[in-house]
Amino acid sequence: MTASGTVNVILLVAALVVAVYLLVALVFPERF
Questions:
Q1: How high is the pLDDT of residue 1?
Q2: Tens-place pLDDT, residues 1-32
Q3: What is the dihedral of CA 1, 9, 4, 7, to 10 degrees?
Q4: 32 within 8 A of 25, measured Cβ to Cβ
Q5: Complete DSSP assignment for 2-31
């Protein structure tokens, strides 16, 4: 895998984690 490919995967995973975190924060606002 190339370096740019690795960076793209890392960014994709980071974006998914942030999206899930925001979704959970919206569903359970009392926990944040």
A1: 72
A2: 799 999 999 999 999 999 999 999 999 988 76
A3: -120
A4: yes
A5: -HHHHHHHHHHHHHHHHHHHHHHHHH-GGG
What is the C-alpha separation between 6 and 24, in angstroms, rounded?
27
- Residue 20 tokens, joined: 């899930």
Predicted local distance difference test score (pLDDT) of residue 8: 98
Give residue 12's Cα distance to chain centre: 7
In terms of C-beta distances under 8 Å and separation of at least 24 residues, what long-range contacts does 11-17 make, across chains too? none
- The two structure tokens encoding residue 28: 């359970």
DSSP 32: -
